[in-house]
Amino acid sequence: MARAPLLQLSGISLGFGGNPLFEGLDLVVQPGDRLALVGRNGSGKSTLLKVMAGLVEPDAGARIVPAGIHVRYMEQDPDMAGFSTLGDYAASGLPEAETYRVAVAAEGLDFDPARPVATASGGERRRAALAKILAEEPDLMLLDEPTNHLDIAAIEWLEAELSGTRTAFVLISHDRAFLTGLSRATLWIDRGEVRRREAGFAGFEDWRDTLWAEEDQARHKLDRKIKAEAKWAVEGISARRKRNQGRVRALAALRAERATQIRRQGTAALELESGPTSGKLVMEATGISKAFGGVGIVNDFSLKVLRGDRVAFVGPNGVGKTTLLKLLTGELAPDAGTVRLGTNLQLAVFDQARARLDPEASLWENLTGDPEIGVAGRSDQVMVRGAPRHVVGYLKDFLFDESQARAPVRALSGGERARLLLAKLMARESNVLVLDEPTNDLDVETLDLLQDVLGEYPGTVLLVSHDRDFIDRVATTTVLMEGGGRATVYAGGWSDMRAQRGAEPVVAVAEKAKRAAAVKASAPKAPEKQQNSGLSFAEKHRLEALPEVIAKLEAEIAKLSDLMAAPGLYEKEPAKFRKASDALADRQAALSAAEEEWLLLEEKAEG
């Protein structure tokens, strides 16, 4: 029997007062759907997700959610007013017996639930919001870039968590590997139209290119027909006046049809030009060590980088990847060991914090001036690899409209800021590129182009990224940093590194140890047997909560059994009986699973 949809959008139109973003949009999300929502930056992916969540009211159309269905949207900037800690926010609304789920999610997503909201970073707040939606286990999750601010270990944990859930979800992400591993169907937004493909993201690009090729062919045929009809209108026989007028009207209709077709947005004109060739040796670190406040960043680390190498630096957040980049480029001095730089180096830096853009200055001023030293740009030209270009023309290469040229950078989206920083970077000649998280906020097409550009770049590339697919496509060497001064060099990209490590997990050694010590110090003293049990912090919470969960399930089973035993229920209200029967079966299965879990944890606690 077909199940009712979880959510339905019917005839949705939305324009924000300008050209319509969507018009007559219809969409259905079914139980069990795992949808990848993809499209160019600015196509309306986040807006559509907010319409689905009921946070944005459309100009026309209806959003339908059946009674009893819970839809949750992961807030990009969650409102935590009234909560003292991240854990308080994430556990809000959960029954006491289910708050252990927050501890499990916090461990996987690598944030401290005891962190005060007032001192939490934006990334920590987003991770708490993600933990909240996972712990709530709604019928439908709407996830907008959930991997932002996550390191690779947390991304892999989240991927495993979503792979095992029975909750339906709609997912926006720039991480190809994440989308490929999780999606079963694809929603593609293109020029206000949403198409659905009943297959995961893995084959999306081939499908998209096929549709675009068919569209180009149809447009070409229409253009030829318009050209032929226009020629006839000029050269036709004037004596056949009545028939002529009919064909003229048909020509007008063809031209109107052609005018309604929206041309696809092009790709950014990314282009890198190497400066003077560097020496064969670009940089060599020999036995370097660096620590801050007693926390080791690297210890006795050595690396030789030759011209043309592509070196990726990976590892959990906070282990010091950016610091190691600064050590290798000479921006920081090591505590011990030496760094030798090659000859004739010209560096171009793409920084993670986008600090090289002045948010209050316009795009124009950021391109022609130097925000780093407070010099505003007033020229109408920008030097692009030694040749002058008009500012507006160069901005159009990176998909900016002329109207945006004088707008402040703070008005740009994350993807647009990334494109602007790439425009600044690629205007310079260089022979060493330092790219710190360049893939954040870029759409798939721009990522493809950036990868191709880096492949043709004759210089050297140092790359920090959490995008496993991008690392695989670009890197020739991978440096894995795990904290505590531990950094290991592997040949190849992410997959090559994982193959060489085998099953050994990627963890932040120092951070995990520090957090475990803090948890142990703050926790009440437990009996000796439990202290030596080997249970994790989340498992201990789960073991303590399970008796209450089991008691609750037993009470629900008793109530459902009494209900079904009522005389005549089956004959008088068969639908109610069937619903109670299904619920009883679910509770009995959940009780069996909870009892089994309790036994396993008890055995583990006893050693």
Task: Provide an overview of this structure.
The chain has four domains: 7-206, Rossmann fold, CATH 3.40.50; 207-260; 281-509, Rossmann fold (3-Layer(aba) Sandwich), CATH 3.40.50.300; 528-605, Valyl-tRNA synthetase, C-terminal domain (Helix Hairpins, Orthogonal Bundle). It has 20 helices and 20 strands. The longest helix is centred in the middle third of the chain and has 32 residues, at 204-235. The protein has helices at 45-53, 86-91, 100-109, 122-136, 152-164, 176-182, 204-235, 241-260, 321-328, 363-368, 391-397, 414-426, 444-456, 468-474, 494-501, 509-522, 528-531, 537-564, 569-572, 574-605; strands spanning 7-14, 22-29, 34-38, 60-64, 71-73, 140-144, 168-172, 185-190, 193-197, 281-292, 295-306, 310-314, 336-341, 347-350, 381-384, 387-390, 432-436, 460-464, 477-483, 486-491. The two termini are 47 Å apart. It has 607 residues and is of the alpha/beta class. Mean pLDDT is 79; it is low at 237-241, 258-264, 371-377 and 508-532. Strand 15 and strand 16 (387-390) form a beta hairpin. Helix 3 crosses helix 4, helix 3 packs across helix 18 and helix 18 packs antiparallel against helix 20. It has a six-stranded mixed sheet, sandwiched between helices. A six-stranded mixed sheet has the order 14-17-18-12-19-20, with helices on both faces. Strands 2-1-4 form a three-stranded antiparallel sheet, with no helix packed on it.
